[in-house]
Amino acid sequence: MMKTITVLPGDGIGPEVTASAVRVLKSIFSTSNRNVQFIEKKIGGAAIDAYGTPLPQETIDQCHHSDAILLGAVGGPKWNQQSMQLRPEQGLLGIRKAMGLFANLRPVEAFQALVDASPLKQSFVEQVDFVIVRELTGGLYFGRPSERLGPNQDRVVDTLAYSRQEIQRVVEKAFQLALKRRRKITSIDKANVLESSRMWREVVNETAKRYPEVAVTHQLVDSAAMQLITNPSQFDVLVTENMFGDILSDEASVLTGSLGMMPSASLRADKVGLYEPAHGSAPDIAGQGKANPLATILSAALLLRYSLDMDTEAAQIETAVRQILNQGIHTSDLHVANHEDQIVSTSEMTDHVIHAINANRT
Q1: Which residues bind NAD(+) (predicted)?
Q2: Identified catalytic residue from 250, 271, 309, 311
Q3: Residue 213: its pLDDT value, please?
Q4: 250 an active-site residue?
Q5: Known catalytic membership, residue 11
Q6: Full-prediction pTM beyond 0.70?
Q7: Is 3.40.50.970 the CATH number for 119-256?
């Protein structure tokens, strides 16, 4: 049966890093029994230029007919003067909403070759291995439209809104994930201040009754932010609402030594998901062959694992990335101690990953 992966290259370095990930995926599929087609559509600034909107209807339609979506990055200074509704980032928010992608998974795992690049002590980061599960379609980002109030419009209101069902489905996803890992969940909220967080905590406690094998801890978001820096290895699965997850996942990215190593998956109840690197579009280096494709390649590994049930092949990609870094091979954005002379281009890094995958098969 034919599987379809929709590729949304986006802006800046997006086309380069998605092209690398597609090359890796095609290498994987060439030795498997999977029949997979790739269809490319526009999103973000590229879609604004072509269609006058960051999320064309034909992109939405194609994504609805896909088994998985691979996204590069959106945005750039070229579109900074657009109205809020026409900013490239609205394309990303819109496709998440249109596809019902309510749970974002952000794995945070230390790479031994990069621990010297972390701002934290090596002993703090070398055992780091956790996943942040962030609710994606509710909260402040999707509440009642923001308003400026008063005769001089000198007051503003943003609305944080959640239904119990929205909380339940992402919390359920976190517990399911915890069962496959070390069976520990840290639920992050601000229950000492926000009513939405008090409901969040209620739902977590209700769900925990059905998962007695999972240990649950509640933590206030300000404390969690501190603990991510002072004791990050304590965490296994963290689950939290939209804005808290947005902030904490970017904070956690420094633990690995580079945002360019951070993959992510945005999922719904079935196997359809959207996979993208955590980094931005980096328009200042677009087209120069300097972009680090590894976060997108690792996102492609998540695509294999969560949308196509290809765990073995996903692990092959992840192993290959580690091997290449341990050999000192890296793009210019990474700091690998004592290997500054082994800087390679985007395409060369992709070549090395594919070669390592193929070598490990023999």
Answers
A1: 76-89, 280-292
A2: 250
A3: 97
A4: yes
A5: no
A6: yes
A7: no
